[in-house]
Amino acid sequence: METYFHKLSPEGGTRQKLIQDLRSLATDMEVLLKASAGNIAGQSKAELLVLLEKLKIASHRIEEETVAGAKAVDRVIRRNPYPTMGIALLGGVILGVLIRGRD
């Protein structure tokens, strides 16, 4: 399987950072729950564990959607390189006109 979208942005992608932060948060919450198991009521602990599991599922879903979206964009660009460049050029011109108009 080929991957063409190795780095989507110079900083590595904000969605990737979000996914890493969500996973780190989930791990930290799990450690905290285990450390304070005696201080938390049974029902509260169960609710927190359910929320933790939902957070893990959400982070996996975000990652899958990001990869699927990047692959779809990559396919469109590879199938239609010239129209894509034209759209990008037009967008740049419009953005330039808007920015210049503010001065």
Task: Report on the biggest sheet.
Answer: none
How many E strands? Answer: 0
The shape, in one word, is elongated
Helix content: over 70%
The helix tally amounts to 3
Chain-averaged pLDDT? 79
* Number of domain modules: 1
User: What sequence of helices (H) and strands (E) makes up the elements?
Assistant: HHH
Are there runs of 5+ residues with pLDDT below 50, and where?
none
Structural class: mainly alpha
Distance, first to last CA: 48 Å
Proportion of residues in β-strands: under 5%
C-alpha Rg (nearest Å): 22 Å
Can you describe this structure?
With about 100 residues, this protein is mainly α. It has one domain (about 15-100). Helix content is about 80%, strand content about 0%. α1 (about 15-35) packs antiparallel against α2. It is elongated, with a radius of gyration of 22 Å. It starts with 13 loop residues before the first helix and ends with a helix. The relative contact order is 0.09. The mean pLDDT is about 80.
Give a brief description:
This protein has helices spanning 14-35, 42-79, 81-101.
What's the topology here?
Layout: H1 14-35, H2 42-79, H3 81-101
Helix pairs in contact: 1-2
Please describe the structure with a list of short key phrases separated by commas or semicolons.
103 residues; mainly alpha; 79% helix
